[in-house]
Amino acid sequence: MSMMKWIFVLGALVAFSECLRVPLIRGKTPRQKLQEKGLWEEYRKKFPYQPMVKFQQQQNGAESMTNDADIDYYGIISLGTPPQSFRVIFDTGSSNLWVPSVYCTSSSACNNHRKFNPDVSSTFKSTTEPVQIQYGTGSMTGILGYETLEVGGITVNNQIFGLTETEGQFMQYMTWDGILGLAFPSISAAGATPVFDNMMSQGLVSQDLFSVYLSRESATETKPGSVVIFGEIDSQYYTGTFSWIPLTATTYWQIQMDSVTINGNVVGCAGGCQAIVDTGTSLLIGPYNDIQNINGWVGAYTNNYGDAVVSCGNILSMPEVVFHINGQALTLPASAYVSQGHNSCTTGFYNGGGTAWILGDVFIREFYTVFDRKLQMVGFAPAV
Predict the structure, then answer these.
(1) What are the residue numbers of the active site?
(2) Hey, which of 40, 126, 201, 329 has its CA 20 to 30 A from 242?
(3) Hey, what CATH topology would domain 236-382 get?
(4) pTM of the model
(5) What phi-psi label fits residue 153: left (phi over 0), alpha (psi between -120 and 50 degrees) or beta?
(6) What CATH class has 22-228?
């Protein structure tokens, strides 16, 4: 191959690499915003967090979701020609893409967000097929359509997505507009093809995987730190080597976990359990007894709302919590699982009311995570 051709190929690869990244903004959570306004106590009573609702099996064109007031990572996508921009959660715990639309006019939830207008897009294709998202505290209803999607600098043609007609009331306090699901087609509401499946089938990614780095620092739309990378693993975001874990189901990104220990003592998941790796859940969710046990070991007490409160001055002396997965020990220091709130500190361990574990952002922040569709594995490496 001539030198000119090598230069061309290298330039194409560099351009391809740069085009597959979606910066994630980490702003204030709805909880923080409501606390600042003195509205948090009223809000949490009205819209309780029910983390396992999201993982109920979808059926009849419906998917489930709950009110997570601690979600603070979102990225920018655009739909339509000319493009209309939206802030979305890149959610490995669901499979559908949906955004608010001009069809939704009845609630402040819709009116507080950017709304897609199909009438001004030359590439929109309508359907008459309904879609429903059932929340733990209400529901969103809408209709499906097809549109040109731009994400990470690449273009996905004929992407099916939901346009909202109604939204749950609690959505008015969410910074993000909609959701881009990155789980498997088998749980997609109404059988809609997920975005990453279209990326693979349209030849838009060099490898059938995507990776996620969640920064520990806050970031803005002009200075992002976190990123979703489609089709690539980037060595600048991790140290050491990956722990590769095979999936136990191809619905969510579900894996087998062996145990959870503190100072060598098994404090949760005794005898093994199932865990779902979910970028769309902010906390680390587990069964009631296990979570109570872990919070007891780290010196937390549970308040009336289920928050595990600790003394902010004790963080340096609190123990590490170790997750044993596929023979590997993945460690969370107290600095990873304790967060500074408006007036107090809380742990990221939360009772989900079910039997499964959800490894949410509290966990993923410590580990650069690869979601491999071809090999059906998840990879964890210590994040920088």
Answers:
(1) 91, 278
(2) 201
(3) Cathepsin D, subunit A; domain 1 (2.40.70)
(4) 0.90
(5) left
(6) mainly beta
